[in-house]
Amino acid sequence: MLKSIPFRIVVIVALLIIGAIYLRPTLRYEQLSKEETQKLHELSALTNIPLATLGIDIYRDDVDLKGEVEESDIDEVKKTQARKLIDYLRGPFREKIKYHRAQAIKRGLDLQGGMYLVLEVDVVKLVENTARNKDERCEAILAELRDRAQAGNVDILEVLQEICRRRSISLSTYWGEAGQTDESIRKDLQTSGEDAIDRSLEILRNRIDQFGVSEPTITKMGSRRIAIELPGVKDPARARELIGRTALLEFKLLIEPERTQEVLLKIDNIVKASMGIDTTTALTDSAALAQAKADTAAAAADTAKTDTGAAAVKAEELFAEAGTKTEEVDSATLQHPFLGLLLGGRGDIIVPAKNKSKVSRYIASREIQRTLPSDVQFLWSNAAEQRSQTEESYWTLYLVKKQAEQTGATLADARSTIGSGYEPDQAGKPIVEMEMTRPGARIFSRVTGANVGKRLSIVLDDKVHSAPQIRGKIPGGNAVITGMRDMEEARDLAIVLRAGALPAPVQVIEERSVGPSLGRDSVEAGQLCLILSFSAVILFMIWYYRASGIIADLAMIFNVFLLMAALALFQFTLTMPGIAGIILTIGLAVDANVLIFERIREELRLGKTVRAAIDTGFDRALLTIIDSNTTTAIAGVVLLIYGTGAIKGFALTLTVGIIINMFTAIFLTRLIYNIATHKRQLKTLSV
Amino acid sequence: MPQFFANAHYKFVAYRWRTVTISGIIILAGLVTMAVRGPNWSVDFRGGMDIQVRFAQPLSDGQVRSALADMNVGEVKTISGLGQKEDILIRLKVSENSEETQRQVQQKLEASFPGNSVEIRNVAAVGPKVGRDLRRSALLSGILAVMMLLIYISWRFKFEFAIGGIIALVHNVGVTMAFLVFFNYELSLSVLAAFLTLIGYSINDTIVVFDRIRENMKKRRALNLRDIMDLSINETLSRSVITSVTVFLTVLVLFIFGGDVLRGFSFVMMVGVIASAYATVFVSAPIVVEWAEKRMVKGRKPR
Question: Is residue A498 part of a domain?
């Protein structure tokens, strides 16, 4: 049956039809996305919303685009047009493009723009977080662990166990239950590590879905890594921030100003001592302290009306290096090398931007960390502030209780909105409103009730967003995060808060992003290459083999057609290297036919009849075709299994191409010859 | 109707020492150059960060380099971007905080060239750990591919043929690598893919000759091994050339029009195709002859 001509014709025609069916959505999607781009351009021109923002927000249900149009100050005609466009795009068009996109050949990131990220979950941090009774020995273990983890993709827990064994410390000193064996603790840590990756995967998926990326892929890579592909992302920086941040929300109480002052003075002394300055003038310090207290009292009286002013420190006198006479402060900075870097103001520790790194270094230094009370920590504000154009920007440093009163785990919902009311840091600014779960609200009410008058900082990923004073018990379980640059940031923050915090920090260890314009150019270059190499090979084959060359060309075109259909059918992703694979397939596709034709020519030269020559030619060439293609396919399969990213795309088209290649050469070419020689005695053969 | 090498009767086997020597010199020169210069790893394997930018009004790489003078910039060069324009590639040694670094680069460029808009077209930031992992998996996949091919050829042919095929393969990779080094192309993931394809392709090329040798050994028992080799190579010569030409044409198109992404890839394939055609004719079969004759000398003397 395989040899019967009608059967073969049926098979070929069937393949053509199936191929056409599978390729149609690809062509249709091409049209639709052109239309989409054009409509988005129009909409952007009408509403003055940047194209990049529209590209992300257009299909997001949580974004009230029409509302934004309504509130903007463009004229009515434009508003109506914009509304119509939005309705059209969000209506039937959206379904249509979604459907066709799902059926079309997937385009790799390099062809449509987008980003690829590999995240590594910080297992060391996880180990650190789960340790209890942390002391210096434990810190030393963790420090070594961190060092060794830098070296490469090692099994962190194995290293941990080995370090502890070498120091003859049993794991149960710091992890697991007392008396638990090392092995079982390790197993527990392992499980919690794997659990952390799985949970991170889930949370990231959640965040990305809400971000409105069409068809992201999120996969686990090995035991510690997560690979994320975000096709079509137009704002990589924003996406990266959304994905990479831990989003750990904590509520921490601020340390009282008096105690803060003491700590600062202590640090100042240590810094001074370390700088080798004579500290016999202990008097100065006690004097300074006394003055600080006096100031505190005075300031409290001064600013009794202001909301932050529980104990504002008028620090201009204390912190000698006030903005006015920065250059002539040598003696003051010598006296107070640390305090000299700070500015006072409204109860906060203000640090001019230029001093921030120095202050950070001091705080992080080992001596100071050692003298710091174990239950407190320093945290920075989330962004630099600038009170006026002329003034330099500054950061705020907070001393807070290490133990959080409450975390984001108790959040029920988070929404971004524009703040209203009279609060200066909220009114008219983007904020995120949070609503807590019932038990969360109970905790919050208890915490606020017990700490009236104190300040509670809202900390996100170790950065203080605000630290309002608790004026009374807050029963409803509502809180607000302020300090976002713009509405987009607030929106993204609401997303990450809703999706939840990652169980352990993640680190971006690989990032590739391709701008949409490069993607477009690549597609054009790919098409050009395809057309040119097609033409070159077609012409060469016709020149060399004449009529048979046409047969080979037909087979080659059929081949590429089937290859594309296979890409659509199996939902493979086409990349630029993938196009290179297709083009290479074009070159190789004719090889099988070349083998056949050369064989036929040889047989004809030996004086065989046309039909006999064709038959022997095919039979003899068959084995060779199988052998030679199999070898290339072996290399292709190895690439497919071990290759990453770009290589995989190439290996895919090459391997599939070779398989189709063999089929076409044996099946289609022969069919055409058979038809040509069927019932006819050809005297000559154009080969 | 054109016909290449219609009645070819070249004595390829007789030239074998000369031809193998030429290849040997090229490979050796490549190795020496590589040893002197050190391997030119791309960002994939070395770790670090590549940023490709395009300016609305084109600038020279020198201008960009001086604008970024205070950053830890490795190399800044002009590359052919797609769409008939030139892009500038900025190489940085760091890969941490890629977002922050990108922003800094963009800000610095915008500040240095006011009124000229800059677009970041492509970013690749690879951590050093990832680079190491990629290098290892690349090496592994190369070894695995060669092993599998060895097994396949030994199964389909005789072991001597497998050796001949693998030597041809090593030859092709060696020669191509040498040219890659001479022209100072960097070793990237796509170049690696090209090498692995070349492994498959060069065996493919060799196999066709081997197939013919196998066939002729059965058909023409009167001929000695050398003559069978020569006959088989001559008989398949036109096919070898035609296939090389068609494949070469397609990769040439990629080399010219495929842009910077595919330049290294297509360069490897171009050189590889030529090396492979050369090896098929001049290297692999002659080596099999040498090997087989030595074995026959050891065992029973032929004739």
Answer: no
